[in-house]
Design a protein that fits this description.
Elements (H helix, E strand, L loop, with lengths): L2 E12 L2 E12 L3 E5 L6 H9 L6 E6 L2 E2 L5 H5 L2 E4 L11 H7 L13 H13 L15 H13 L5 E5 L7 H18 L2 E6 L2 H6 L3 E6 L2 E7 H4 L2 H8 L3 E6 L2 E6 L2
Parallel strand pairs: 3-8, 3-9, 6-7, 7-8
Antiparallel strand pairs: 1-2, 1-4, 4-5, 9-10, 11-12
């Protein structure tokens, strides 16, 4: 086991309101862990707390067995990439320019690109089927293409872990499936740890190893997909009657009222 992230008993309070309370999550190399829960359950805050983007009222975070406080932001960016719900880019940016930004943690003070930087960028573009789009402006791309560009920006960081916040938002069903399959493949082939918040519990669970279920900032359940995707747990998390079914051996949860 190669532990990448160990976050224990995280508590976050914002504007006098408790957003997370005693939440723990771990991530190993090569595995996909999905965060499941209704809107407002604390999924985004958990990702941001693991990166130090929000102040914790309690708990601890360690990356690669080193406390988060001992990481410089640039140093951590060489190990961990983050893809928010709405990644930013400058109007007019071409795909190649967005991808190159991912190499900045590896570059010197002047940001001079090396031959190795260019090699990583073009290899990533090829892997994500972006090689023919490098000169296109980002705003001209489809939703699925754009998400691959932002994922590519993460991958060119050469990270050991990627944290993604609802990466399939705004994608149609086919592109959602393709994105989740791609993340699964990257985890297996590159041994990247993937921690992902998702609003589609079935799609995420199909491609994940483990799940953490949140509600109102607290843990409802945590564990292997088959243990977590149960009618009582999902009903409790979403305040709906849920039915568990299996299709070709794949567990699915559907709302019945």
């Amino acid at each position: 086991m190669n532990r990448l992230l160990d976050a224990a008993d995280l508590t976050v309070t914002l504007a006098g309101r408790t957003i997370l309370q005693n939440v723990s999550v771990a991530l190993d190399a090569g595995e996909v862990v999905t965060l499941i829960g209704p809107n407002g359950s604390g999924k985004t805050t958990l990702l941001r707390a693991a990166l130090g983007h929000v102040r914790r009222a309690g708990g601890s975070v360690a990356w690669l067995d080193r406390d988060l406080k001992r990481w410089k932001s640039r140093e951590l960016a060489r190990q961990v990439a983050y893809m928010p719900q709405s990644p930013l880019y400058e109007p007019g940016d071409r795909v190649i320019e967005v991808l190159r930004l991912g190499r900045s943690p590896h570059q010197g003070f002047l940001g001079v690109e090396s031959a190795d930087d260019e090699k990583v960028v073009h290899e990533t573009a090829s892997e994500l089927e972006l090689a023919d789009l490098l000169d296109r402006r980002v705003e001209t791309l489809s939703g699925g293409q754009r998400q691959r560009v932002f994922l590519g920006r993460c991958l060119v960081q050469s990270p050991k872990a990627i944290l993604l916040d609802e990466p399939a938002t705004f994608l149609d069903l086919r592109h959602q499936v393709e994105l989740h399959r791609l993340l699964r493949r990257l985890a297996e082939q590159r041994q990247i740890g993937v921690l992902m918040a998702s609003h589609d519990l079935n799609l995420a669970a199909t491609h994940a190893d483990r799940a953490l279920v949140l509600k109102d900032g607290r843990v409802v359940a945590s564990g292997a997909i088959d243990d977590v995707m149960t009618e009582p747990i999902m009903s409790q998390a979403f305040d709906l009657r849920m039915k568990r079914i299996e299709v070709d051996g794949v567990v699915q949860i559907v709302a019945i009222g």
